[in-house]
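The material for today's practical consists of a large collection of protein records. A record pairs a protein's sequence with a compact description of its fold. Instead of coordinates, the fold is spelled out as a row of discrete tokens. We will come back to this pairing of sequence and fold again and again. Here is such a record, shown just as it appears in the course material.
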Amino acid sequence: MIIDLAHSSAATFADVMAIATRPVVVSHGGVKATCNTPRNLTDAQLQMLKANGGMIGIGYWDAAVCAPTPQATARAILHVIRQAGIDHVGLGSDYDGGTTVGFTTEHLEAVTQALMAAGLSDSDIAKVMGGNAARLLAAGLAPR
């Protein structure tokens, strides 16, 4: 079982993190440091996510990154890397028809370019673009 805290309140997030024995995911969202909206994670929550081994998928829509651009998405990713480390961030599009985005998944090369411009290595970009999600899924689905 993998627990997704994407729509959790701060209290629920803290309660789950206090008892979680496997990595959790925030499948889609953002961070308050780059976009101060109610659902986005604080730096303290990013630290809890790091300690748990979990990850956040950074979204592409305005409430997640405040400007639905590849650059804003990359800014949020870079903030998570600075706060929690490269192993705790990925992409989280939330394409369910209820969000407005400035670009689609077919244009992720623009996010890749922004991460390259920020100095991330190919291996770090690979983690963001899916490697961290694969690690989390493998950890969450492994038999105990």
